[in-house]
Design goal:
The complex is a heterodimer.
Chain A lengths: L2 E5 L3 E2 L5 E8 L8 E8 L6 E7 L4 E3 L7 E6 L4 E6 L8 E11 L2 E8 L3 E5 L2
Parallel strand pairs in A: 2-11
Antiparallel strand pairs in A: 1-3, 3-8, 4-5, 4-9, 5-6, 7-8, 9-10, 9-11
Chain B lengths: L8 E4 L5 E6 L10 E6 L6 E4 L13 E6 L2 E6 L9 E8 L4 E4 L3 E5 L1
Parallel strand pairs in B: 1-9
Antiparallel strand pairs in B: 2-6, 3-4, 3-7, 5-6, 7-8, 7-9
Classes of the chains: A mainly beta, B mainly beta.
């Protein structure tokens, strides 16, 4: 059973860079069928897709965050990461990592998800 | 404002059938699969329906999904108290080249 676990600082100062890591256990990030995603949810609000990455290095970003976000994968550690630069209070959210399984252009949905990590901003 | 439009709330009594709608456009729902997620407040979302109407293993057949044109629906039959959650639809948006979610629907079991 694949499990995902987010890690990172719970508190970040405005204008700094947020760094989060998702550790994958019970499975490998290096599978051709899997795409690894970051999704966030501001308190009391809905879900927002941030980015995804394939172990080959192929990436895709939400246009609204593309200029500030970088997603990467470390196959040796079975992890993938997110960096979000120049953060503000508007970036306060629970950040989730998740997996999508795709084959032949058909995807099976985001499953599983990590438990999520709350990131807040304070000077 | 979300690309996909969902009603903010829905309700029903135990045993009833409830439907939640998700409205989009030809460049998202109209041209791509729809997914549904269930989120109990304070926990991570859970995949409920994939590719319009497919249920992952372990999801009760009380949950069903459908799509017609640029809209999709999630139906829950035999409503139970544990179904009280937030529900989100999602799809690929061709115009954004990325995934988009609906704003979410809070389901209350009366």
């Amino acid at each position: 059973q694949v499990q995902l676990q987010e890690s990172g600082p719970g508190l970040v100062k405005p204008s700094e860079t947020l760094s989060l890591t998702c550790t994958v256990s019970g499975g490998s990030v290096s599978s051709d069928r899997y795409y690894w995603l970051w999704i966030r949810q501001p308190p009391g609000r809905g879900l927002e897709w941030i980015a995804y990455i394939h172990y080959s290095g192929s990436t895709n970003y939400n246009p609204s965050l593309k200029s500030r976000a970088t997603i990467s994968v470390d196959t040796s550690k079975n992890q993938f990461s997110l960096k979000l630069r120049s953060v503000t209070a508007a970036d306060t959210a629970v950040y989730y990592c998740a997996r999508d399984t795709c084959s032949g252009g058909r995807c099976d949905g985001f499953d599983p998800w990590g438990q999520g990590t709350l990131v807040t901003f304070s000077s | 404002q979300s690309v996909l439009t969902q009603p903010p709330s829905a309700s029903g009594t135990p045993g009833q059938r409830v439907t939640i709608s998700c409205s989009g456009s030809s460049s998202n729902i109209g041209n791509n699969f729809v997914y549904w997620y269930q989120q109990v407040p304070g926990t991570a979302p859970k995949l409920l329906i994939y590719r319009n109407n497919q249920r992952p293993s372990g999801v009760p057949d009380r949950f069903s999904g459908s799509k017609s044109g640029t809209s999709a629906s999630l139906a829950i039959s035999g409503l139970r108290s544990e179904d009280e959650s937030d529900y989100y639809c999602a799809t690929w948006a061709d115009s954004l080249s990325g995934w988009v979610f609906g704003g979410g629907t809070k389901l209350t079991v009366l």
